[in-house]
Amino acid sequence: MGCASQCAKYFLCFFNFVFFVAGGAALTVGIWLFADRSSFTNIIATLDQSDILTKTDTDVIRMMSYILIIAGALTFIVSFLGYCGAMFESRCLLCVYGVLLLLVLVLECVVVGLAFGLKGDAEKGTQSFLKSTIKYYAASVDQTETVTVAWDGIMSQLHCCGVESYLDFHESTNWTTTNKVVPEACCIKQNGELQDRLCPLIPTSTNSYYQKGCYKAILTMVEENAAIVIGVAAGLVLIEVLVIIMALYLACVYWRPQHACVDVSSRQAW
């Protein structure tokens, strides 16, 4: 086996070992969340001094665990096939691995194509979804706090308020029972404190972002980082194509010596 084959072999081993560990970690976390949510959230809260997970609904945590289990298991299995195929020079495992990666690549291309083709419908659907969730925004701790925490995080990070403006909060019956006009997350803060304590009651353009919708803020953020997103996506596609070529190349390399041996033995017998 030549130098190129050796390089391809060890690259595939390293590449799949990394994803093998990552998939195993995701699978472990997913099973842990599914089996014992409280212990995991308590550890995370202790490490990052955050209580977001502890406030998240049980159904959301369960859905997260399902996603982690499925994604982790698929990554674990596929990378295991690739690692074993390269390490033990198994033509069969490498072929299966290459075909699975090719299917993943095709699915990714289909998803991207559908996203561009249905861009208008996707934007309307996203806006409608955001408005449907803001109906459950609450001013106090209750069963809808997951929505509240998520929206507070979005508005604080993107410096926006509501989907299109602060008027969207009028759709929330939990919010309209208060005397506040906008949530504190819509207000301008300094060192974690409100710049103007009257902001939730009397929002203005100088003490809040009450007229800036989060939907436009999200679109602006995506447009500003479009080059990075496209670059990362193109890099991932390039790596996947390179790995598929290497896997199929090694499968051909490991296949040829077997036929060569058969040819030599048949000639000797002749």
Question: How would you describe this structure in keywords?
Answer:
10 helices; 270 residues; disordered C terminus; two-stranded antiparallel ribbon; single chain
Kindly summarize this structure in a few lines.
Belongs to the tetraspanin (TM4SF) family. With 270 residues, the protein is mostly helical.
Helix and strand topology:
Blueprint lengths: L2 H33 L1 H12 L3 H4 L2 H30 L3 H27 L1 H16 L10 H14 L14 H4 L12 E2 L2 E2 L19 H11 L1 H44 L1
Antiparallel strand pairs: 1-2
Helix pairs in contact: 1-2, 1-4, 1-10, 4-5, 5-10
Description:
The protein is mainly α. The protein has 10 helices and 2 strands. It has helices at 3-35, 37-48, 52-55, 58-87, 91-117, 119-134, 145-158, 173-176, 214-224, 226-269, and strands at residues 189-190, 193-194. Strand 1 (189-190) and strand 2 form a beta hairpin. It is elongated, with a radius of gyration of 26 Å. The chain starts with a helix and ends with a helix. It holds the Pfam family Tetraspanin. Belongs to the tetraspanin (TM4SF) family. It is a multi-pass membrane protein. It is found in: Membrane.
